[in-house]
Amino acid sequence: MRRMPQLILFNKPFNVLSQFTGAAPEETLAHYLQAPGFYPAGRLDKDSEGLLLLTDCGETQQRISNPRHKLGKIYWAQVEGLVSDEALQRLRQGVQLKDGMSLPAGAECLPVHQVDECIWPRTPPIRERKLIPTSWLALTLYEGRNRQVRRMTAAVGLPTLRLIRQRIGSWHLGDLKPGEHRLITLPPRWWR
């Protein structure tokens, strides 16, 4: 009988590498997890926070990471400036990046009170400018280019100040605090 693959849902803190090894004094996954045989399914930049999935199964890693399988990834981005309807429309249609057009993304404004209820303070805090407001966006992507959310928001005039991945497919952060993780076994239907 085939052993069911396992997943670790990890809330990656800011300034942590999405790998188990790194040159000192870099913080890596090994500072938070003792997980022999587990490998990240995808990546999350050092300066981004939130959900990182790790698995002990190569086939599962491929199914999660490969854009062909259409697992949407939802990011919350704190951006500099006020989000216009035009900026949202451009994000929804796809924007021109240096490496070509992005696929259309889900894009919506998030109410500040919704974000304040769900997220933790960041250390160090984001830079703030007294005369320039910030806004929160929820972006859903179906591709995974390098630093894509940051490049997309910059392309519409909204530089990203903070980026938190909330969801990958049906897996989400839930109540995990930075540095916390949860181990789950994938159900048999995952293989159908």
Description:
This protein has 192 residues and is an alpha+beta fold. It has two domains: 6-67 and 171-191, Pseudouridine synthase I, catalytic domain, N-terminal subdomain (Alpha-Beta Plaits, 2-Layer Sandwich), CATH 3.30.70; 72-168, 2-Layer Sandwich (Alpha-Beta Plaits), CATH 3.30.70. The chain has four helices and eleven strands; from the N terminus they run E-E-E-H-E-H-E-E-E-H-E-H-E-E-E. It has helices at residues 58-65, 85-93, 112-118, 148-155; strands spanning 6-12, 39-40, 49-55, 73-80, 96-97, 100-101, 106-110, 134-141, 160-168, 171-172, 181-185. The protein is globular.
Average residue-wise pLDDT: 91
Sequence of secondary-structure elements: EEEHEHEEEHEHEEE
Enumerate how many helices there are, as a single number.
Answer: 4
Helix content: 10-25%
